[in-house]
Amino acid sequence: MGFLPKVVSSMIPDRLKRSTKRRLQQLFYSGLVKVSGGQEEALYWSCAQSKISPYMMIQGFLQGTFPMPKVNNNSIFIWYNPDPRAVIPVAGFKLRNDLLRCLKKDRLQELDKRFEVKINADFEQTIINCSKPRGEKTNTWISPEYIQVMLELHQLGIAHSVETYQNGELVGGVFGVALNGYFITLSLFRTVDNASKVAFCYLLSKLKEDGFKLHLTGDSDSWFAQFGALNVTKNDFRQELISAITAPVSFTSRVPSPKF
Fold first, then answer.
1. What is the chain's pLDDT, residue by residue, as a tens digit (260 residues)?
2. Are 212 and 249 in contact (CB under 8 A)?
3. Domains in the chain and their CATH numbers?
4. Cα–Cα distance between 75 and 43 in angstroms, integer?
5. DSSP track, the chain
6. Hey, how many other C-beta atoms are within 10 angstroms of the C-beta on 141?
């Protein structure tokens, strides 16, 4: 039975096959755009159907989206693309007084309680710790497949972590992705008070010292509000994104020296 369709197919001219394929594509695309709510949404939905990979992840970030698994079904990825977007200004960033007090207090701690900050010293454990459910939550959006892709991006020098240690033990950190002058903070963790806050303060100082142009974070009314996160429209964000991803900037291995 499988032989007959192949014979019939071979008898159809290639020109007719191509025209039929185009008509079907146009028909299905029109339906997808209508159901999705627009051409852009249809594009994001189509891309999200591909298997997650370092290449697809980078494509998503370059579009200004967050490629991430659905919490209730980690095998399905979405390109999260809210409007407005939350950013923390890089060049004009200044530590708030309460954050300065936190850092100054840490400097005065006894050596075994003081935080030591490192860059990319243990990226894998940092993202694993970030993936652990918190509080009453029993699941996480950072799936094993997502971790594997991030480890590959880390090996390529694209994904990075800033970590805090106490007595040689990893107690906090933040990880994200750097694409030229564009940095995306993806998640943080802590096992002791202020460990993630200190790591993030150092990340902000580092982005400023290294000359980054744009820093995308989570919602501006979330934990990031204390660091000066603010909302910008999607259109304004995209204008800044173009300049940032074409800027010749590198995420260096240098631990910054916050001014306080």
1. 555 455 445 556 667 767 787 787 787 778 878 877 787 777 777 777 777 889 989 999 998 888 888 766 666 778 888 889 999 999 877 777 777 777 777 777 777 678 899 999 999 999 999 999 876 666 778 988 899 999 999 999 999 999 999 989 999 999 999 999 999 999 999 999 889 999 999 999 999 999 999 999 987 678 888 888 889 998 999 999 999 999 999 999 999 876 65
2. yes
3. 3-80 (no CATH), 85-245 (3.40.630.70)
4. 19
5. --HHHHHHHHHS-HHHHHHHHHHHHHHHHHHHHHHHTSHHHHHHHHHHTSPP-HHHHHHHHHTT-EEEEETTEEEEEEEE--SSEEE--STT----HHHHHHHHHHHTS-TTTS-EEEESSSHHHHHHHHHS--TT----S--HHHHHHHHHHHHTT-EEEEEEEETTEEEEEEEEEEETTEEEEEEEEESSTTHHHHHHHHHHHHHHHHT--EEE-S-TTSGGGGGT-EEE-HHHHHHHHHHHHTS-----SPPP----
6. 18
Q: How long, in residues, is the chain?
A: 260
Tokens 């008509």 found at: 23
